Input
Amino acid sequence: MKKEEASLPNGLVVEWSSILHFFPWPPLRSIHSCLPLHWRTTTPPPCCGLLQSRPRRAAGRPSPMASAAVAIHQFAECITCHAWSPDQSSNALAPSPSSALDLIVRNCSDFRIASRASGRWGDLLVISVIAFCPNNNEVHIYKFFTDKWEKLHVLSKHDQIVSGIDWSRSSNKIVTVSHDRNSYVWTQEGSDWVPTLVILKLNRAALCVQWSPKENKFAVGSGAKSVCVCYYEQENNWWISKVIRKRHESSVTSLAWHPNNIYLATTSTDGKCRVFSTFIKGVDTRAATDSKFGEQIAQLDLSSTWAFGVRWSPSGKILAYAGHNSMIYFIDDVETSPAAQNLALRDLPLRDVLFVSERMLIGVGFDCNPMIFAADETGLWSFVRFLDERKAAPSTSKASQLSEALGKLYGQSKQGTSSDTVEPSKPRGGAHENCITCIVPIRKGSDSTTKRFSTSGLDGKIVVWDLENHINIGK
Output
């Protein structure tokens, strides 16, 4: 139900959603629908006494309700994965006041559907080209033209759901994997995308894929308890896959390349996180410390449940991954003397994580809201807050207490819990409405910090987040 507010000249507002939520009687809804339009949008009806004070904000001062979600794009009913084009950092568009955009923008304190509205929105981050899977066997590529998104291509070589997409930054190649056990490397020739089949030698579904930092190889995780590392053989003009088979005891759920282009971290539904060497003669430059292909560097048995979302910090000194038991794990110095820190969450489990700097991490998952984690000067990690958590003004506490009291009178708390002994969960915001399954950084050049990133999930939305002016990212 859309939230409606009526503003008074002195700055007081009435929240109709609070009344209709706690007293969903048809007569009350009928009265609301029959009210004069100017009562519903500018002044409250005389019979209403549920008022909350909202202090006026000085011009130029950021709103306490401002959101880090700068753009929300509804592309499909469900999105499996997504990736941005290599020119992602050079296409920030500021839409003109007369443009009609097929996207939802959250600016300051409200959602607005952009439709030839007057007024300037500022520098809205809109990336030009995106590839995503709408939970089927296709990959859709869209481009933003002036005032709307247009579908450019549909990559449809796969027979089953596409489970992973990655778009290389330097070579402009797209790699896709699917439950059909195959992988394709797509090369743009003119206006078309030409696929090259990569035989993975798998007997179960491919689940995830990622290019290496140098983009001379990519790794594929699978349900066959194995990882394929693929590279291009110039002599025979084809892609070859080498398989790491022996170590995993269950499906490989996520992958992460170390900045050295050799080490590969994996997580699995056997609850373990492992680090392997992927050195390939003729592809990688050998160093004195390099191990042979497939050698296990470390095995981290910290979680008793499924493990997801593994990532390295920008320097490669810290490894982080999430467990399905609402835990997140941070490991320092994996190669030499691993030191682990286990952080328990009060909320739902995470599905993916992303380092935005050496001492800050974003986690996404079943709470439908990115979570911020940070390390102090001693290296101790802790949960900071939800990124999309809407800060209430201090003067709204009485209204919140009144709403909670009305909820108890109606027989349940404001959040829908029926027991007074259970602490109600906090509202998470509204950018995503279902589980977030994918998080992708949006970087400029070789920046070690990530100020912007995007998320996608089971609600079919792709959300662009901007961390500037919301939190100090650090180094």
In short: The radius of gyration is 25 Å. The first helix runs from residue 16 to 22. The CA atoms of residues 59 and 108 lie 13 Å apart. The mean pLDDT is 76.
